Amino acid sequence: MTPADVTPELFRFLDELGRHNDRVWFNANKERYLAQVRDPLLALVTAVAPKLRAISPQVVADTRPSGGSLLRIYRDTRFARDKKPYKTNAGLYFGHAAGKDIHAPGYYLHLEPGQVFMAAGIWHPDGDSLRAIRGAIINDPRGWKRAKRRGLHGGDPLKRPPRGFDPEHPLIEDLKRTSFTVGVEFTERQACAPDFPVRFVGACRREVPLMRFLAKAVGLSF
Predict the structure, then answer these.
(1) Residue spans per domain, the chain
(2) What is the CATH topology of the domain spanning 8-217?
(3) What is the C-alpha to C-alpha distance for residues 186 and 170, in angstroms, rounded to an integer?
(4) Each residue of 82-93: pLDDT tens digit?
């Protein structure tokens, strides 16, 4: 096993966490979380960092254990009815160098028992960014069709055309979108294989046209 290896123990820990989602259990198993989830994923970030930079120098792979590419295991329950304190999945986010406060395209890796996937694009951009993306689709329909050639997630589209856009536009279904993401699913076996960093980066590389289109639409380079 190399430090970047995801192992079945990661999925086993998350499965158990789903059945014992409380602070007493988590604190008693904190060392397992660090050894089986946090540390291997931080090593995975290190392993893919140069490969992601080769795709674009704008992609940030941050190895810090807090505030970096590894997303918090703790849920924000302040306004949630579900007060369970912990997420039952692990996630890595490789954002744009423009910063976390900017709505920009990024890559996401989701690991959960029975569900592993990579996502690329922009999820729920703010109003200004959403209008900019819709405008880019109108102005460059051919470029948009090339960018989304692999198809997009269903997302949460508007039921009616957005205000100010032609309901008969040939790309109206895309203009009704509120998120612009695409994804690739993996098996747990693939996630635990030694070649997973290469497999993950390959999936990211295939979505460069979408990432480049979205970045340009919101005024960023990629």
Answers:
(1) 8-217
(2) BirA Bifunctional Protein; domain 2 (3.30.930)
(3) 33
(4) 899 999 999 999
